[in-house]
Amino acid sequence: MAVVVQKYGGSSVGNIEKIKKVAETVVKRKRAGDDLVIVVSAMGDTTDELIEMANQITDTPDKREMDALLSTGEMISCALLAIAIQSLGEEAISYTAYQIGIKTSGQYGKSLIYDIDNKKIKKSLNEGKIVIVAGFQGVNEEGDITTLGRGGSDTSAVAIAVKLKGSCEIYTDVDGIYSVDPRKYKNAKKLDEIDYEEMLELSSLGAQVMHSRSIELGQKYGIPIYVGLSNSDIKGTVIKEVANKMNMESKPITGLATSDDDVAITIRDIDNDINLLSDIFESVAKKRINIDMISQTAPMNNKVNISFTLPKADLKEALDIIEKFYSGKDKLFIDEDITKFSIVGIGMKTTSGVAARVFKVFKLNKIEVKMITTSEIRITCAIKQEDKQKAIELIATEFNL
Ligand code: ADP
Ligand code: ASP
Ligand code: MG
Hints:
Elements: E1 3-8, H1 16-31, E2 35-40, H2 46-57, H3 63-86, E3 92-95, E4 102-105, E5 112-116, H4 119-126, E6 130-134, E7 137-139, E8 145-147, H5 153-164, E9 167-172, E10 193-195, H6 196-204, H7 212-221, E11 225-229, E12 237-240, H8 245-249, E13 255-259, E14 262-271, H9 274-286, E15 294-296, E16 303-311, H10 315-325, E17 332-335, E18 339-344, H11 354-364, E19 369-375, E20 378-383, H12 388-398
Parallel strand pairs: 1-2, 1-9, 2-6, 3-6, 9-11, 10-12
Antiparallel strand pairs: 4-5, 7-8, 11-12, 13-18, 14-16, 14-17, 15-16, 18-20, 19-20
Bound molecules: adenosine-5'-diphosphate, aspartic acid and magnesium ion (MG).
């Protein structure tokens, strides 16, 4: 029988009434004949509230203990959903990552799933039970609980679907993937389908509707991911390898995403020496801090300014490293007022002049571009946060998003 892995996000299990509603939907589906594994996120804003509690004690809580703390949110919703399903007369069993061997590697707070011991899940399914799994968590080689990064329950669901060779459905508070976050642009259009490549770019660049690692896994193992509204029959979006890419190419841009989560660091007036740059970047990379956009001025008297962006959350750690090489207000400049503004589309591979259109719109509307990076299917500009909304509306109109 087909195994269906469904995931319900935080807002879908935000209170007891909502958990009961999800239980009804799940029981109906089970009675229609599917074997179900349900992955849940923590209720509502629980994860934010837990972070806030730790921050009331210190700005720099220990990462291992933070993972121990944050993983508790999903344990609550997972047990409550099992109770709600049982109360409707179906058998259900909840599992934490430890109980079903979701093995992770890498750092606390952003660990990666490398295997799942699916024996218990299969046994419970064979006994006719609905299996409920706590998302967002895993257990590392030391036996410690780790988390997968914010929004990581999507990845738990896709990883379980991969392991069980099942299908994967992500249920959330929006009825599919839109060309632009509908909260930021009300005329955004819903997409019937979107290619893994495009969704991966969008989710890495700020479209928090999906955890980007979940898309990587879906793409690697060829699992289509359905995204839809919880407890509803409205047709959502399928993330998959889109066969007819020619159709996609008829439109240069599929979607737009923005992120305010990065900060730009500029090091001024440093020797134009590749060994030095390599040393700085290597030290930062050793801490697994992801440097994204990079730009450098032309050398003057063999001196350059170099700017790069990295996640705000990693700023303190990055500065500790960089200040070993350079320090002082005249050398180091931190710009927290940036929005990373990205447009994405496979059609860009075959359409020329997309960047020219973007820059023309920005020029005519006095939107300053601080940094630029591109790939074959995307253009990202760092702009001022105050220009974000204007840029979204202008570019969405320009490309009919
Ligand atoms: P969940 O708690 O269910 O995981 P998230 O808050 O992580 O939900 O993701 C859903 C939200 O993602 C939506 O409410 C929407 O505002 C936002 N979002 C961002 N970009 C997009 C997009 N391109 N299409 C749809 N939703 C998007
Ligand atoms: N509860 C976690 C978070 O808020 C994981 C998730 O929602 O997917 O980030
Ligand atoms: Mg999410």
